Amino acid sequence: MCYAFFGGGGCDSVFPGDPGTLVIEAYLDVGKPLPQISISRAAKLSASRFLPQVGVENAEVLLTLNNIEYQYHPSPSKPGVYEVVGEQSVLVSPGVSFALEVRVESEVARAVGLTPPRISIEDVRLEVSAIPVAAVLLDSLDLGLDSLNISLNTRTGFIYPVGVSIDWLDNSASERDNWVETRLQPITPFSSTIVDFFLLPSDSFPENSTVRGDSGKRTWRGVYAVPVGLESDPFPIHTLRVALSRSNEIYAQHSSSRLDPIGREPISNLNGAVGFVGGISIDSIRVNVPK
Length: 291
Prior knowledge:
Blueprint: E1 2-5, E2 8-11, E3 22-29, E4 37-41, E5 45-46, E6 49-50, E7 54-55, E8 60-65, E9 68-74, E10 81-84, E11 97-104, E12 107-114, E13 121-128, E14 133-139, E15 154-169, E16 178-187, E17 194-196, E18 202-206, E19 217-228, E20 238-248, H1 249-257, E21 274-289
Parallel strand pairs: 3-21
Antiparallel strand pairs: 1-2, 3-4, 4-7, 4-10, 5-6, 8-9, 8-11, 9-10, 11-12, 13-15, 14-15, 14-17, 15-19, 16-18, 16-20, 20-21
């Protein structure tokens, strides 16, 4: 079978009449309402291209959160999307157990886990370079499957490096297996098309690998770049989205494997299906640069 989901694809043998593999995705975001659940079939390769996923309409879906069961039904307007029956005011609590069971005829898929503590950005500090510097740039829009030959996609240019420090609170008294993912996303026309080899605009790491201060704050430092045409060009004023998410190692592996250029199947935490169902806490702010 061939898969085409989460921006990637992967193949194994195709059997006639095979309905495809179940793909399930749901994120229990702490402090937010109970999530929608996406259920579909992995697409099959046809005529050298991947076909879109097909939503599953006949699933029986039960989510148990903190020992309370919630029934789901198909969305009337979104094929393959399931919504909780009533209970719109219920919010996902931190540090509680959950279990999801999906039945589609004779198939059963399950996922279990814990929701993480809530994460909150405490402070963002910026360091903007006074002058642009020469850099070797890679145009990410020009990357194909043969991305090993990156010399064809590189060019020299000028960038303003922007250093960003993010503080967040971690007042836990015990060691946990939480992972944190950071993202720096400039909201401008140059967003996400130019990547410098030596920058760190995003990262994923065990939370306890960072130093925790006396006040319980942890800090991550990253760098992104603003490209300019000439060394004499001024720094372009723009808006930066700073995002933090807290989950577990499986989510970190799943998130990174979704971007696998070889197109392998993303890491999954489900039994009987592929995809990801897990607890997560997300916080983000927008900052004017320079501020």
